[in-house]
Amino acid sequence: MSKEWLTKMAEEQSTFRHGVVRILPDGWLYPGTTPRFLNRIQSFKFRPDDVFVMTFPKSGTTWMQEILWTMIFNPNLDNPQATQPLLVRSADISVDMMFDTVKLDEVNPESMYEAFKQLCPGKNEEDGLAVQCLDAMPGQRVIKCHYPLDLMPPDLLDKTKVVYVARNPKDMVVSFYHFYKVIKVFDYKGSLDKFIKLFMDNNVVYCPYWPHIKEAWKKRNHPNLHFVFYEDLKADPQGELRKLNQFLATDLTEQQLKNVVQHTTFSSMKSRGDPLPDKGLYNEELHQTSGGFYRKGVAGDWKNHFSQELNQEMDKWIKENIGDSGIHFKMD
């Protein structure tokens, strides 16, 4: 991106030391180090029993991560590893690009560094904390990913299972805005209205939204892809877990599924702390006042934030972009 664009961006948020790039043809907006990490992922050794949680940010990623990890490794709620931070147990293969922030000295994910030291002695952290930790993890892995299918190896679905979670874009963007404010990587100072307009214009890191979800939706009938709507998971968690049980072939009993449901309620997860508990990652004042990483975890909260004008503008944007795709969001 141009110096002019970066200067405008820096007026209200933190920037990245190596700038920001758009990856064509879809125009994915990412920190400048991203192509290097994507190149590494193209040759990453995926395993047949790997399970991916793939989402556009703030679409229920952390919730689904904990659900899948618990279903696979802790259905009886007796695994001592469950006390480890979630992002240590289930690393984010797309997170390394974020540590290029100009606030690197303030943003110190100690939990990830500690895991890196244990799993990857002698390795260079600049080659990626998460990518190298995942490579060194023994056995089955639950892997978080915010990259779209289009940027992953083309045979990913032939090698691994992918659970894709989609959330209605109005709730997602409100949650994304609060995340941008509370996480020091971004430290966003602008208004919600401005953020949403930047988002709809694909000028927010991780955008664009529509190619991300549409590519997964097109492949929803692939035997190794399971497509879930956040709102369905909120409405009937036990029913959605039964579908996941079949997809993953985990063969859990109804009681074990109930265990997982209870262990992964919003209140239960919030009580156990952030997926990475390192205080240096967060704007502490906002972390305390806005609810922190786990803010509300509800459907329909957008109604408390949208003006009538903004709602009409976003309705138009959604209608234009959904087109005849067949995607249907529940807005409540």
Automatic annotation (TrEMBL):
Question: Which GO molecular function terms does the record list?
Answer: sulfotransferase activity
In this chain the Sulfotransferase domain maps to 48-326
SUPFAM superfamilies registered for this protein in UniProt: P-loop containing nucleoside triphosphate hydrolases (SSF52540)
Top-level taxonomic group = Eukaryota
Q: Which Gene3D superfamilies match?
A: P-loop containing nucleotide triphosphate hydrolases
State what protein this is by name.
Sulfotransferase domain-containing protein
Return the InterPro entries for the record. P-loop_NTPase, Sulfotransferase_dom
Pfam families membership: Sulfotransfer_1
Query: What family does this belong to?
Result: Belongs to the sulfotransferase 1 family.
Task: Tell me which UniProt keywords the record has, alphabetically.
Answer: Transferase
